[in-house]
Amino acid sequence: MTIASFHSPSRRSAIGRLASLRVQPTIVLSIAIVALMIAWSITPGLFTNHDPINGVPAHKLLAPSAENWFGTDHLGRDLYTRVVYGTSSSVSSALIAVVIGVVAGGLIGLLAGFFGGWVDIVFARMVDVLLAIPKFLLAVIVVTAIGFDTTNAAIATGVSAVGLFARVMRSEVIKTRQATFVESSFLLGGSRWHILWRHVFPNASRSVLPLAVLQFGDSILVIAGLAFLGYGDPPPASDWGLLISIGKDYLKWPWLVYAPAFVTIATVLSVNRISRWLRKTD
Amino acid sequence: MATQDRLTAPIQSVKFGAPKPQLLVPLLRTEGLSVSYGPNQVVTDVSFDLNPGKSLALIGESGSGKSTIARAVLRLLPSGGRATGRVEFDGQDVLGLSERRFRPLRGRVIGFVPQDPGNSLNPVRTIGVQAMEAAALLDEPSKAIRKELILETFAQVGLDNPRRVYDSYPHQLSGGMLQRVLIGLAVLPRPMLLVADEPTSALDVTIQKRILDLLSRLQRDLDISLLLITHDLAIAAERADSLVVLKNGLVQEAGRTAAVFSSPKSAYAKKLHADVPALNPDRYARLRDPGFRLLDTGAGKPPKIEVSAVTKRFSVDGKVLTAVDNLSFSVPAGTTHALVGESGSGKTTTIRLLLGLEEPDSGKIVVAGQQLPERSSASLRGVWRHLQLVYQNPFTSLDPTWKVEQLVREPLDRFKIGTPGERVEIVREALANVGLGEHLFSRKPGALSGGQRQRVAIARSLVLKPDVIVLDEPTSALDVSVQADIVEVLLSLQARFGLTYVFVSHDLALVRQLAHTVSVMQRGRIVEHGTVSSIFDNPQQPYTRSLLDSIPSAASGIARLPQPRARRILTKEKIA
Amino acid sequence: MSKAYLNYAAKRLIQAAVVILLAYVFTFVVVSILPGDPITNVLNNPQNGFTPDEINEIITAQGLDKPIPVQLWTALSGFLTGDLGLSMRTNRPVATLIAEVLPSTLVLASAGLVVALLLAAVIAYGTQFLPKRFGQGLLRGFPSLFLSVPNFVIGLVLIHLFGFQLGIFRVIEPNSFWATLFAAVALGIPISAQIAEVLIANLDHESGQEYAAVARGRGLGQMRLFTKHLLKPSSLPVITVIALTIGELLGGSLITETVFGRTGLGSLVQRSVSSQDLPVLQAVVSLAAVVFVLVNLIADLAYPLLDPRVKLIGPSARRPATADEGFTDLSKAVTP
């Protein structure tokens, strides 16, 4: 439901339409959730008074309550606090992964698509190789090769996303390169580099932005998966995937799984929603 | 189904010529029809009558709501569309019917001929399968006979090899053939009303005429009423008994064709009438005269463009295709030369050859006294300083991420013309010359109308002060009133700066309005060339004549009308 | 079989072979050149208890004393002749290790694919029959939700609800029917989302096409329109998507097998990672790439034969599109 239905027909300007899109409640909620996650990562101490590392053994495995929103774990630590303190590394590692994917993949795609010929052939086969290895398996062998910690897991996730970005960027670049306005600029004296940077790149990037946002959500999942298998930082770190992994041994106290899972899902869902919205308003 | 019988029974009786007083009950009547999508009302309070066996045209430019009305009548509005008011079919309101009760009317009683034949048949199913769906509406149990009927209808709509068509997939047929198929499918169940939504706008001109002739013939032979939706006033005047002129969803004028046509009352109908090239061949005579004087006195020598014996072949799938065959023409300075042809005539290749984007296999091209260098040579840039192109579609020829001012300034920056301060001045001047106000300078193309975008494109090529501008169907993506504005801009620029134009078009009426000399192209060759008056008044080649014949002429349509008998005025004027 | 098709098939075949070879080289390079040198780490780790003699023996057996290009050449020629080398952890042939666990993973992956297809069909085709206001929005929300849930969470939830709470299966019998079924559900749900997204996008695209309106103008009802016109053109491109999800199935089984305690390729990878058994890892990754490339090759070769819209131009007539890519209009991708 959009507020647009309350507008009179006379108000049909582009700005009006944008404004009406912007007030979709799910978008507002999604942005709020992502904002909260960013706040949790920057200043976790503002959101909780408990200690994320040292618990009170007497209070172990308590059910969620007003005092412990997500309950407590097997060492008597407040789970909500653990989740809040784990946000920083979960979110920032996803960011690293996206940056690696976008920059490396985008560059490969841009060059391959724009120059074509043997450049394209070489890059296209490279990308085919990256895409042929299952994404998660690729991340696993890269993280195995460079060592188990969260930053390396992020790098591995980024590497596994390079192929996707390269392919999308390449096809966007090829599409843009064939656009009439590119030929027009060429006829009006534009050099190859001018056209590449001022016309092709900005236009092709427009559809990569929502994809990058989407990939951010996906990276959170992949990194959580790696952490779940124990390829991230070891405890007492509290990455979301690690929390769930610890919780799986205490399924009698299901909040130990459900609470961090809920936060992960809410974050990824919000990010995906924002990505879709960006794509639509493009 | 009892409901269905009740619905169709009275209709059948009308159809089979019961002595019903036909004048009292129009076949189709809309009363106060309004359509809205959410908060946006796109059609407001439209009323008209269409009597059995007659034809009515809804005329308007894009955004006029004409197609929406057609879809509302068929109840095929896209989701979110809501129609209010009354749509009566044979005296019964059908707008209020449930989908289940209305559906039997579709196809069987109301046939639909769509706008774009290329997208109007399912691409993954054969024509035959889809024809069978239409044939299923006939009360004919035998499948073999239904197939015979289909093949018969295909022959009737002028398809040469009905059996082959039956087994084909849509992509294996040309646009004209597909439109014949679609018309065939629409008339196969013998509907009483045919709704044709711009049935020819996606087709070449000579095919347009044949399709319109076919529709007229079927309408007469099968006694079908025709609701024709078109943007082309000349076509409407030629083909319809009565007209409804629409703008922004409102009726501007309505009435008998002859009346609306010979003496339009509303300002909009008047403007529309004045803007249609086919009806106003001499509209720009004053602006065009300097060019004719140059031609007569020979002052235009030496020519700005000289193309001699140019041939260009492409090889496609191992087959050699001659796109341009021994092409020669020259354009005197300060005049407009038109290249006229249908799709596949080699117009586009000619443009690319002129601009050096393709290299001729033989022959030579001289622009402003300088022979065109090889493709991808750096000196081509020097040629483009003097030779510019305005593209057909302003919706794709401007980078959507740039602002108007940047767009117009781009060529100056690239060719390093003047100081930055001077460039700003040149941009302002060029935009003023094409009639764009300063408030638009910082907009991006997305926030401009089609006409405004094309003005920006013209300004962009203008800032380089070229000698020659190649105009590639510069108005074919635009509405007719916008087209008139753009033509006016182009001609006054020519008169002011002595520009030389190569004008490429399929629209002969438009060519007649603005060109000085013409070359008619067919399959890569020039079949006839000469001055505008010699080509239009005294064509020598049969192909030229068939092209000229396909210009809709209102005169022939009005002559067709039974003048002496007093005719009931079919439509009610209702201007909101 | 037109000449254009054979031409296309030949090019596509060569391309697939090149990609498989490059994928092998790529994994080899990743595991042997990247910093950290996991092999010497493992061998020199005192916890593993190798004596210097044993270390030398392993190094010679694995050919680790030779220069890297030579090692690559040996490994590659072994790979091409089906010799995948010896596991460093168990000293048994890698091919045997894989053959032992492969059936279990194949069962899980194919069951997962079936679940994914069924679920995607129910969701996507369901949107065509539910009214806009009631239920359709909910169905359309499912793929997005499914894509936001980590698949190990789905597994844990299923184990918690159906294993612990309802007692339908016992976690200690991971190969029982119900345990396998729920593992397949956990594996299939995220994949169903990708397929359903593409299906829904195609259905929306096709039903917005002019031909759908024209067919309705011919008197067709919603049901006939769907079965006669929309089903085929919207479902055909999904072949491509299914082929692309093979990678997800293999990658996802890694986690799902861990969660459900199944033995399979996934658990083999897990064990090889923790013991840094590189020959096994190298073999499994290459095998996954081979499977992926072959399945996609088959899809690419079959597609032009099934969809009359496809006209073959150049070696890559079809640009693959995945749900997570989702930005390229698929029907455009197949209609050049």
UniProtKB/TrEMBL annotation, chain A:
Keywords associated with the record: Cell membrane, Membrane, Peptide transport, Protein transport, Transmembrane, Transmembrane helix, Transport
Keyword Zinc: no
Domain ABC transmembrane type-1: 87-275
One GO cellular component, as annotated: plasma membrane
Gene3D superfamilies per record: MetI-like
Family (UniProt): Belongs to the binding-protein-dependent transport system permease family.
Gene Ontology process terms (BP): peptide transport; protein transport; transmembrane transport
Chain segments annotated as transmembrane: 21-42, 94-115, 127-147, 153-169, 208-231, 251-271
Localisation per UniProt entry: Cell membrane
Species of the source: Neorhizobium lilium
Membrane topology: Multi-pass membrane protein
Keyword Nucleotide-binding on entry: no
Name of the protein: ABC transporter permease
TrEMBL record, chain B:
Biological processes per GO annotation: peptide transport; transmembrane transport
Residue span(s) of domain ABC transporter: 28-273, 305-548
Cellular localisation: Cell inner membrane
Keywords per UniProt: ATP-binding, Nucleotide-binding, Transport
Membrane disposition: Peripheral membrane protein
Coiled-coil regions listed in the entry: none
GO molecular function, one term: ATP binding
One CC-aspect GO term: plasma membrane
NCBIfam families hit by this protein: PRK11308.1 (NF008453)
Family under the similarity heading: Belongs to the ABC transporter superfamily.
Identification of the protein by name: ABC transporter ATP-binding protein
Organism: Neorhizobium lilium
TrEMBL record, chain C:
Any Gene Ontology CC annotation: plasma membrane
Domain named ABC transmembrane type-1: residues: 102-303
Residue ranges the record marks as coiled coil: none
Residues that span the membrane, as ranges: 12-34, 106-125, 145-172, 178-200, 236-260, 280-303
Places the protein is found: Cell membrane
Pfam families with a match to the protein in the record: BPD_transp_1, BPD_transp_1_N
Topology versus the membrane: Multi-pass membrane protein
Domain of life: Bacteria
BP GO annotations: transmembrane transport
Annotated keywords: Cell membrane, Membrane, Transmembrane, Transmembrane helix, Transport
Homology family: Belongs to the binding-protein-dependent transport system permease family.
Name of the protein described by the UniProt record: ABC transporter permease
Source organism: Neorhizobium lilium
